[in-house]
Automatic annotation (TrEMBL):
It comes from Sulfoacidibacillus ferrooxidans. This is IS110 family transposase.
């Protein structure tokens, strides 16, 4: 099995959290979405 590295970026504000994921290398990151800044929404995030 080959290991892979993922990088996760979080832009956090009082109201929301924006999430992006990038694979190892120089490819463009993938915008996952914007979520409310609540415990429930963080627990339910899918990547």
């Amino acid at each position: 099995m080959k290991d892979s590295t993922k990088y996760v970026g979080l832009d956090v504000s009082k109201e929301s959290i924006a999430v992006a994921v990038a694979d190892d290398g120089r490819g463009q990151p993938k915008f996952v979405g914007m979520f409310p800044h609540t415990v429930e929404s963080v627990r339910n995030m899918e990547a």
